[in-house]
Amino acid sequence: MLVALLVRHNTRNDQDNENLPPGSYGLPLLGETIPLALDIHSFYRKRVKKYGPVFKTHLFGKPVIAFNGPEAFTFFLNQEYFTRENASPHPIKELLDWDTLPLLDGDEHRRRKRIILQAFTPEAFDKYIPSIEQTASYYLERWEKLGSFTWLTEYRKLSASLTNALFIGKEPGPMSETVGEITDTFIKGFSSIPINLGFNAYGRALKNRDWLLDYIDQAIQQHRQQPRQDLLGLLLSARSEDGSTLTDAQLRREVMHLFFAAYSGFYVALTLLSLTLAQHPEIAALTRQEVKQYVPDGPLDMTQLQKLVYLEQITKEIRRFYPINAATFFAQVKKDCEFQNFHIPKGWGAVAGIHTTMHIPQVFSEPKSFKPCRFAPENFAALPENSYVPQGGGSRDGHRCAGEDMITVLLKVMGVHLLRRYSWELPPQNLELNQDLFPTPRDGLKVRFGIYTNS
């Protein structure tokens, strides 16, 4: 039996007479799953460089075609040919508790997504900004006293407190930071060997998934007894066009997905913002000048944040430049189709590269250079469809991340509070990014932090 499998696998390339995209099926049985797990970002970069924007591979026991670049990404989003239903590997479905937006498609996906989006409007952000500022102030005061510290560690704590404040209504501090540690262990399950031994990384991730679900259940009950104007409170009152709401079972899963996505997205983006401003003093000086001109003091709101055009360009370039999200969730090919004369077989898996799409030199010249001017309003408006896809592409009620604008708001608020009062410098250290699912500086971004003096 094993010999037959090996022969079948190793001769499959010889049977590719249907003009499939170039690529490799990798090792027998395992395919290319191991190199993907070891360094997901390098996996996509190397294969795009070797094979071009569309390539075949074999992941999690299934042949897969990867789409990279604006045109290919747009094709991948066509629901006539691709679906998320039953497309993700078993471990991802198990960790997400089987029934949540990244795993759905069609009418039910659109209904839920439109309900979720009601908690991510400019009007909703105005309700959240006081919590963001309160959390920022709590940690900035602590950092001022510390003077020197590792920023990644502190940003994990800040992000845990902020996620807990926005979704659960808790104050910043040690309890929220503990929830962040639990969330961290859960997230590690997505890049671990998917065998549940209880004590191993995947087993611990499943236990922490259940802890988070119970934690969210308690918060739902508390919000029903005492309504609040946080994100969970808005989701409890949100209605679809037909008047339906999310059931408690649906809500707990969607909030869990949003909770861990927000936590990881927050600390990674904030770490990279601070790194960028330290490495590019000319960019920091221009941004500080913009902050001084438009929001020199006082509480913030969406009207004020919209004035910070240059800071917004920086937030966009951070998400384009750095390898934050490697790829979309998996889809499945619904029917035989063709793209650029390549045959795309029914039943195969499909995925779209996110970071690789935003590093196509034909769209973003000198893609390895950090240039906020790429996102000046006139330049941003001229970009091809689905060329800037940091949290997915397509319409807002499709599979694009609901929290994309939330990241922009957070980076702007934190940027303002940092630049109004503080300055920082990075002592000698290794600033190379690690190979984590969400890469950050290897030494954790050590920093000397203090009051800004305009000397």
From TrEMBL:
**Gene Ontology MF terms in the entry:** heme binding; iron ion binding; monooxygenase activity; oxidoreductase activity, acting on paired donors, with incorporation or reduction of molecular oxygen
Please give the Gene3D superfamilies that the UniProt record associates with this protein.
Cytochrome P450 (1.10.630.10)
Q: Which portions of this protein are annotated as coiled-coil regions?
A: none
Which cofactors go with this protein? heme
Q: Keyword set for this entry?
A: Heme, Iron, Metal-binding, Monooxygenase, Oxidoreductase
| SUPFAM superfamilies, per database record | Cytochrome P450
| Residues annotated as binding heme | C401
Oxidoreductase as a keyword of this entry, yes or no, is: yes
The UniProt family comment states: Belongs to the cytochrome P450 family.
Instruction: Write the protein's name.
Output: Cytochrome P450
